[in-house]
């Protein structure tokens, strides 16, 4: 029997606590035997009320508390001192996220980039034993965060992502090549890239299939995600002098054939996400496909706590004896 870090070695003794209400009732029923009586001819105009009268049951209450403390002591309460050793065979994961201006399209709420950032952050929070890094790309690519187990700093980098920081375009091959480079020297049992884009490769000196071949040779598995609705979406078409964008309806173009080829070439899988719920489902499936092997060893020690209740019982008995022979002494 365990309560909030405290367990009882012999919990069946606690059943004796059910006797306490009977003991209290017996004291109440027999209280006339504990207090002296004085017979007087009449009590008209006589009213006696003092703190001694109000506290005359203290002796019996202390006896009941002493019995209760002894019963709990017999049940042997123990504090559980627990130590957990976790051995995890983690997975090294690089997130490669497209930050081209088309990621500001509003077919997702509030836009593709913000939705992708939030869903990726939720994915990271569920992978507490894995090293995860972040690469971003548009017209070129750079590493936003190297592989790390400090997921707080990674999610901070994710939340700070925005479009327009680097040359515009969609260099899928550069993003994939950069992520592969970060995983090349990893000694993890499994190395994974999650590449998310909403467009067609149109920039960079490394072609996507060349980068995919390099990933395959480095034993890196690539999951590709095409993010965007089918048909038309409100997309940035022009940037004003103040930095804001002008939106217009444009046809969504995603090179799904290329993303499928990359995934197939690296033994990964291609996904299409047309809204936030589908994007969450994609990351959930990747989470299930890439499981981390965890071994947990729990060491438990116990510290006896019954001494405190024995001390309380002795204290209650001591107080009961003192009060019974001084303030509440009776004459039989």
Q: What is the strand and helix layout of this fold?
A:
Layout: E1 2-3, E2 6-8, H1 19-29, H2 51-54, H3 58-74, E3 77-89, E4 91-98, H4 112-125, E5 131-137, E6 141-148, H5 151-160, H6 172-183, E7 190-197, H7 208-217, E8 220-227, E9 232-239, E10 245-251, H8 256-265, E11 269-273, H9 276-289, E12 293-304, H10 306-324
Parallel strand pairs: 4-5, 4-7, 7-8, 8-11
Antiparallel strand pairs: 1-2, 2-3, 3-12, 5-6, 9-10
Helix pairs in contact: 1-3, 3-10, 4-5, 4-9, 6-7, 7-8
Describe this structure in words.
- With 332 residues, this protein is an alpha/beta fold.
- The protein has two domains: 2-40 and 50-82 and 299-324, no CATH class; 91-291, 3-Layer(aba) Sandwich (Rossmann fold), CATH 3.40.50.
- Helix content is 36%, strand content 27%.
- It contains ten helices and twelve strands.
- It has helices at residues 19-29, 51-54, 58-74, 112-125, 151-160, 172-183, 208-217, 256-265, 276-289, 306-324, and strands at residues 2-3, 6-8, 77-89, 91-98, 131-137, 141-148, 190-197, 220-227, 232-239, 245-251, 269-273, 293-304.
- The strands form three sheets. It has a six-stranded mixed β-sheet with strand order 6-5-4-7-8-11, with helices on both faces. A four-stranded antiparallel β-sheet has the order 1-2-3-12.
- A hairpin with a 3-residue loop joins strand 5 and strand 6.
- Helix 1 packs antiparallel against helix 3 and helix 4 (112-125) runs parallel beside helix 9.
- The chain starts with a strand and ends in an 8-residue tail after the last helix.
């Amino acid at each position: 029997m365990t309560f909030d870090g405290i367990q009882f070695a012999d919990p069946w003794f606690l059943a004796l606590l059910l006797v306490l209400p009977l003991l209290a009732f017996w004291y109440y029923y027999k209280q006339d035997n504990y207090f002296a009586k004085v017979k007087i001819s009449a009590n008209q105009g006589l009213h006696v009320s003092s703190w001694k009268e109000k506290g005359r049951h203290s002796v019996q209450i202390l006896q009941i508390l002493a019995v209760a403390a002894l019963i709990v002591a017999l049940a042997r309460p123990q504090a559980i001192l627990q130590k957990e050793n976790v051995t995890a065979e983690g997975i090294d994961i690089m997130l490669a996220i497209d930050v081209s201006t088309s990621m500001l399209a509003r077919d997702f709420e509030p836009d593709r980039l913000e939705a992708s950032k939030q869903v990726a952050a939720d994915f990271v929070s569920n992978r507490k034993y894995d090293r995860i890094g972040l690469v971003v790309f548009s017209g070129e690519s750079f590493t936003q965060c190297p592989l790390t187990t400090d997921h707080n700093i990674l999610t901070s980098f994710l939340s700070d992502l925005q479009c327009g920081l680097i040359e515009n375009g969609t260099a899928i091959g550069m993003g994939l090549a950069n992520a592969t480079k970060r995983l090349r020297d990893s000694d993890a049992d499994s190395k994974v890239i999650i590449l998310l884009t909403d467009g067609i490769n149109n920039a960079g000196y490394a072609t996507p299939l060349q980068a995919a071949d390099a990933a395959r040779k480095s034993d890196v598995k690539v999951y590709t995600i095409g993010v965007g609705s089918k048909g038309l979406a409100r997309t940035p078409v022009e940037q004003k002098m103040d930095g804001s964008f002008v939106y217009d309806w444009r046809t969504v173009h995603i090179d799904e054939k290329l993303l499928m080829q990359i995934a197939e070439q690296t033994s990964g899988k291609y996904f299409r996400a047309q809204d936030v719920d589908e994007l969450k489902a994609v990351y959930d499936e990747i989470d299930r496909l890439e499981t981390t092997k965890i071994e947990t060893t729990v060491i438990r020690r116990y510290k006896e706590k019954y001494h405190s209740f024995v001390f309380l019982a002795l204290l209650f008995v001591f107080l009961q004896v003192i009060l019974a022979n001084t303030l509440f002494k009776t004459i039989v």
